[in-house]
Amino acid sequence: MSSVNFLVNTLFDLYIMVILLRVWLQVARADFYNPFSQFVVKATQPIVGPLRRVIPSLGGWDSATILFGFVIACAKIITLSLMMNSALNPMVIAISGLVILLTAVFKLIFWVLVLRAILSWVSQGNNPIEAVMIQLSEPLLAPVRRVIPAIGGLDLSMIVVLLGLQFVELLVNDLLSKLF
């Protein structure tokens, strides 16, 4: 049964990351005509499209897509609870859904940065995925580059951002564990 739990958990996590990528692409004003961006939009449009007609954006953030991500995170908790014959508590589901969404944000930032680093080693600069990864990660890396210049041609901004991300994730986990 643990293999089925792993599969369900992984599928939900991947789809939540695709949903969050849609939000991030909008915030970063990334190229929506890029094939990778088109995949993200097409994978989320059947639900997000109708939701956006009902739920307005708030302060430049796509509320409908964020709500959709939260609902999918709660659906993950419900599905895994039913698979393990656990009791369903609406408050626990809602809080767990928020924690899953927040954790997915950290994972997504980590994987985008790692993918950008790997593509920078192997790509010749004409990869559409690399172009989107640059558009997504550059707002995180540019401020660090202004403070810490390249040392002998070695850009340390990626390492600094990954360490900072790890620190913030651990801090949030500590705060959440004290609250709940």
Describe the overall structure:
The chain is an all-alpha fold and 180 residues long. It has one domain. The chain is built from six helices and no strands. It has helices at residues 2-27, 35-54, 63-83, 90-122, 128-147, 157-179. Helix 4 packs antiparallel against helix 6 (157-179). The longest helix has 33 residues, at 90-122. It is globular. The mean pLDDT is 90.
Annotate the secondary structure layout.
Blueprint: H1 2-27, H2 35-54, H3 63-83, H4 90-122, H5 128-147, H6 157-179
Helix pairs in contact: 1-2, 1-3, 1-4, 2-3, 3-4, 4-5, 4-6, 5-6
List the main descriptive attributes of the protein structure presented here.
single chain; 79% helix; 180 residues; 6 helices; globular; mainly alpha; 0% strand
- Computed over alpha carbons, the radius of gyration is 18 Å
Structural class: mainly alpha
Terminal residue distance: 28 Å
Instruction: Give the biggest sheet.
Output: none
Shape: globular
Strand content: under 5%
| Domains (count) | 1
What is the H/E string? HHHHHH
Helix content: over 70%
> Number of DSSP helices?
6
Averaging pLDDT over every residue, what do you get? Answer: 90
Strand tally, please? 0
- Give the low-pLDDT segments: none
